[in-house]
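pasting for the record
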Amino acid sequence: MAFSNAAKVLLWVVKWIFQLIPLKKNRIPEPWGLLVTLLTLGYGGDKLSKLEFLSEYYFYYGLFKFESKIYIFNPRLAQHAIYKLEKGAEHYLENSPLKNTFLGSSQKSPETRRAIASLFRRTSIEERAAIMMGDIQKMCEKFRGETNGVVNVTEWSLRMALDIVGHVLLELDFHGLEKKQEEMIRAMTTILHRCYALGEITPDGDEFREANTKFDDITHAVLEEALNIDDDIIQGKRLVKSLHDACGFNEAKDNMKLFLMAGTETTASTIPVVLYLLVKYPHLQDELRQEAEELLESVMADPTTPLPKIESFLSEVLRLYPIAPFISRQNYEPVTLGDIHLDQHTDVIIFTWGIHRSTHLWDRARDFLPFRFLNNIKTSGNMYIPFGAGSRVCIGQHLAWLELRLAIAMMLYQFRFEHAHETPELKFVVDWAHAVVHPDKDFLFRVVPTQNKNVEISMSGYGSNKVGGNLCVRNCVNVELLEE
């Protein structure tokens, strides 16, 4: 620890000296011997912290080279890279089950995105908010059922997110909150968390291959049976049918994997961070609960009702702890970004984590200021990009944002969250293949019910079409607050 702290002090001294040296234009700087040694001594294997430091160190260049990749954090250069370069995920997803999705292949992106674009519009997602609130409330009921009052929020958030993806996107009921998808959840967490984030197993190992095969078999069976449902029985065209018609069975199956993985893992990573901060700052939790108490009934009647303080708080969480810490790009021919020339097939990383935490771009950048975004304070340029930017912005951003704001409002209305003996410290691991940052452990909190009215959800609109035990559903849910 002493060596680490001393190295960090030396790093900042070297940074101060370096920034006195005149800037050399038209070059991409790269850390040199002593700097690399100090980074290793100061941060060990924490690559994310190394990159964050280098973003400050090379700020006036706007980019740097590290481990053969170009990291860009200057907002203007980042904007050029996002719009001018091709998606680079295909290279990073070589062993991933998501390799053949529109996330991993720019060639397959246009027709697939067109087929599903209407479902992911903000208005379409908001029309299904009642179904979403039903799943959030089911999770809250599970909280109440914990005998000792200590809840594994990471696990229940993952199950809730799986049910929301099933209901809102695929119109299938996976019964995740009823613990009826254990094999699917186990396979996903083995692939995404144990392999790509924690590095406990490798993509060429037996455990990974077994999980990958199991996940493929499950999604194959679900899609096959889902396609047998007659769309004439159901209003409108379902996502699974649109995907199948656009790209065929195998690609539809692979993109279903994307919705299941990306739609669940990111939520299960964000909600624990949110609650950790609310437990750390109890006065803030009380203030946000007061807003939930005042506005939840209006939000349930109209999900577009603003929640100014909760929304500002969530925006600050996604600034300081962006769950997608970078955006990958690659150029298939030589290109110039500003004054910088990039050779063909350069791996480019738009370093969102560095942009969001830059002391040169944000006032009190490393401080958590929950009301930084209150009163519609706007950011300039590409300084704030938690869901990416450009034509390839995260297609699920409206789903994720609505899910988070509804979940936080409904949970705070019904519970007070407190530190438990089992609550870990907040530390992150990075899934560099899929560009997601996770807390390194499951988060457990003590939950104490409030004295507010009960939230009653009437799931009266579920249909009766079964898909391998998965219920095909329609958006028809009544939501209201009841007196005890």
